[in-house]
Amino acid sequence: MELNAREPRPPEPKTDGLAVNCDGLASRNGEPAEITVSLSHPGKRVSPIEGSNLYRLRDRKFLLEDKRRLCAWALGAAMLGILLMIAHAELCPAVYQPGSIYALSINGLISVSTGCLLILIIAFHYKDIRLFIIDHNQVDWRIAMTTNRVLGISLELLVCAIHPVASYLGPDVGVPSPVLTWNSSVPPICLCQSQRHTWMEVELLLSGLMFLRLYLVHRAILLHSKVLLSASYRSIGSLNNINFTFRFVLKVLMNKYPARTLLVFIMFFWLSAAWMLRLCERQEEVNTGDMGTALWLIAITFLTVGYGDVAPQTSCGKVVCLFTGVMGVACTAMLVAVVTKKLALNKGEKHVHFFMMDIQISKEIRNAAANVLRECWLLHRTTQAKNNNGEHRHHQRCLLEAIRVFRHLRLKQRKLRDYTSEMVDLSKMQMIMCDLSANWNNSYRELEQRIISMEQKLDELGQSFQSTSQLLSQALHRRRLDHR
């Protein structure tokens, strides 16, 4: 990759017609010469693939497919680790005893899935850096390693590396504390019987934080969405400076499938929050340690009902319920927006509805105007009859009421027409303006043709006048000759 630029150089003697002018710029035969400056690293060679646009497009397509595939595998590894953690927490010690070979095997599988997930995350970001290099036509990969990118990769690796590791620790690790006596039917979480309370809390926290791996869902949705895969979407978006992020894809999904998207999110959040609440409350012998009670508590907290019949007892459970309440308020607001949009009238229905309302209000205005005229006539007739003052006052009140109704209906019609004028269809207005422009162009062309025909007729009249004047001059000249 090279760039043509003018660069000052020290004065050198002439070589093959190349000279240096007084400004320090190289020139050849009196004209300034172009100097090529390489932007790549001096020790690296640029391959023909990097310099060809066709090869770059091909490599970019392959890298996008690799990113999509790696993201799907990473999400699968993350979900596998979460499912193994849930199975281990539910089966131990109901099916197998703590510290047995089954417990160590499941913990080992969780660690293996975590290692595979970390490898897939590193490979994904490697492909992303290569894609950045191709998009920006760079050679050195260190240009892509900005501070934000490094911090993002480090945070992702830290989040994906979290998994329960307390089962691997020895029994004498930590500060001595009395051994807990657990109820075999409601175990807090699978640990060796000699573990301390501190390590039980650590494993509980690590098990709950494994759900942070679900951030990969939004990346998988973005990379597998039809919006990103469609070439027409990308071309039109690039022309309008639209960045195809997860926010844009989420807006598209909420516009196309609002009920389905909200239902999937609410059901998944409900089950996940209920299991996390059960995990937190199992260390206390309370009702919320049961899955059915946890589902009920999450449901009434999510819907902001709060009957008060059950309540969390641990700090972890209170945090889960607090987060559930916040998410419930947000989902309720989105649900109200979706229902409002579904119940709203479309453009055609609005045009029909407001047209019929306008006709109805016009009829009422005509009736009100007729009432005003009738009351004026009755008031005039009672004015002529001077004896009946009560009827005169009655008709005055009726006239004022009829005038008030008439003004109210006129104001209502004006508001309706103002609101209707704001709903004018832009495409219809564009068609009307195109028709007007075409009519104006036709009128202009007809006017031009008429002006041209008038000019031709004026020329013909001028020529006829000239021929007539010549004939008259000839006739006068002959008459003068005859007189002589």
Automatic annotation (TrEMBL):
Transmembrane helix among keywords: yes
Major location (coarse): membrane
GO terms, molecular function: calmodulin binding; small conductance calcium-activated potassium channel activity
Signal peptide: none
Cell compartment(s), UniProt: Membrane
InterPro entries per the UniProt record, alphabetical: CaM-bd_dom, CaM-bd_dom_sf, K_chnl_Ca-activ_SK, K_chnl_dom
Keywords: Calmodulin-binding, Coiled coil, Ion channel, Ion transport, Membrane, Transmembrane, Transmembrane helix, Transport
Coiled coil: 437-464
UniProt membrane topology term: Multi-pass membrane protein
Record-annotated Calmodulin-binding domain positions: 358-432
Any single Gene Ontology cellular-component annotation: membrane
Residue stretches spanning the membrane: 70-89, 101-124, 257-277, 289-307, 319-340
PANTHER family per record: SMALL CONDUCTANCE CALCIUM-ACTIVATED POTASSIUM CHANNEL
Protein's name according to its UniProt entry: Calmodulin-binding domain-containing protein
Natural source organism: Pygocentrus nattereri
